[in-house]
Specification:
The chain is of the alpha+beta class. About 45% of the residues lie in helices and about 20% in strands. Strands 6-5-4-9-8-7 form a six-stranded antiparallel beta sheet, with helices on both faces. The N and C termini lie far apart (about 90 Å).
């Protein structure tokens, strides 16, 4: 409930002179009792509590949505879905949850290459409206995306031009450990839009970290399966000769 102070005056009927008594929203202040003032203060306090509760509820709702998206991605990877499809899923979910116009995932062509030797990142997944972004190559040494990859730190910039002229951007390293980054998740808004809310930063960062770990686990499992298959193929001729 909002209260507005409307200054006003009134004339009293004292013979021979005029007297202006202050009025608030058309009511003379003299008509407010202590009980009225207590009621107004109580209503203002209740309104403040309601606003705080609404803010906390919205934060909890956003946190739950990010966590649900992380669980969905983890489930898709464990179901042996094509990793490229999961990357697209990560980009789509991040775009929706962050209110971004463009979301891209940029990774090295060779994931086994030492990060210090990587000079370019390739956009391997994209959610947005610019068909020229998928497959785009981004330099590491002279871009904000590259800086996030090199440093392993979350970076927020008021505008970005790594994939064209855009507005605010949030660049999240895909970290699998404190000193190992496998790519960058970039959340980008168009020019003229507001920056990302500070309250979104830890949620988006946690989402990126969990997505990176899930991708790394899926990659390790595929490599283990490939090694097992090779070992099985090597074993079959040996078993045949032993008969």
């Amino acid at each position: 409930m909002a209260f507005s102070a409307c200054s006003s005056t009134t004339r009293t009927a004292t013979p021979g002179r005029h007297h202006r008594a202050p009025r608030v929203c058309g009511v003379s202040r003299k008509s407010f009792t202590e009980d009225d003032e207590d009621l107004i203060q109580a209503l203002a306090a209740a309104a403040g509590i309601a606003i705080d509760n609404a803010r906390l509820f919205e934060q909890a709702r956003q946190r739950q949505q990010w966590q649900q998206a992380t669980s969905e991605i983890r489930g898709e990877l464990l179901a042996a879905i094509d990793p490229s499809e999961v990357l697209d899923l990560i980009a789509r979910r991040a775009r929706h949850l962050a209110g971004a116009d463009h979301v891209l995932i940029a990774r090295p062509d060779d994931l086994d290459q030492a990060s210090a030797d990587v000079t370019t990142l390739t956009v391997t997944a994209y959610a947005g409206t610019d068909p020229s972004v998928p497959g785009l190559r981004i330099g590491v040494d002279d871009t904000a995306t590259g800086r996030a990859y090199r440093t392993g730190n979350l970076i927020q910039v008021p505008q970005i031009s790594d994939t064209g002229p855009h507005g605010p951007a949030l660049l999240l390293p895909l970290r699998v450990s404190a000193d190992s980054v496998t790519g960058v998740l970039a959340l980008v808004r168009n020019r003229g839009r507001e920056p990302f809310d500070d309250r979104q930063l830890p949620l988006a960062a946690a989402f990126a970290d969990q997505a990176a770990l899930a991708l790394k686990l899926a990659d390790d499992q595929r490599q283990l399966a490939a090694v097992s298959l090779i070992a099985e193929r090597d074993r079959i001729p040996t078993c045949t000769r032993g008969r």
